[in-house]
Amino acid sequence: MKTDTELKIDGYNILVENLGLVEAEKFIFLIQQEPFDYTKWRQQYLWKNKSGKEISKDAMEYIKNQKNK
């Protein structure tokens, strides 16, 4: 298991890789500005109308595609 610091560094690097430096910083700023309930957000917006099986299938396909790059 990763330490909290390692996890934060990995998360930040993922944001920068996918959003770019400026947008990653903006995202972090936006998250810090408001009360944020990740569980509620995830249920209502991130995987709305998807079952656990569908989410798992999508995750496995993503991993497979990453290995093929």
Task: Compile the SSE list and pairings.
Layout: H1 4-19, H2 21-33, H3 38-46, H4 52-67
Helix pairs in contact: 1-2
Descriptive account of the structure:
- Helix 1 (4-19) crosses helix 2 (21-33).
- The longest helix has 16 residues, at 4-19.
- Helix content is 78%, strand content 0%.
- It has helices at 4-19, 21-33, 38-46, 52-67.
- The mean pLDDT is 87.
- The protein starts with a helix and ends with a helix.
- It folds into two domains: 1-35, no CATH class; 37-69.
- The chain contains four helices and no strands.
- With 69 residues, the protein is mainly α.
- The chain is globular and about 35 Å long.
Q: Flag low-confidence runs.
A: none
Q: How many structurally independent domains? A: 2
* Euclidean distance between termini CA atoms: 26 Å
Strand/helix succession:
HHHH
Shape summary: globular
Total E-strand runs: 0
Brief sketch in words of this structure:
By secondary structure, the chain is mainly α.
Brief descriptors of the model:
69 residues; mainly alpha; 0% strand; single chain; 2 domains
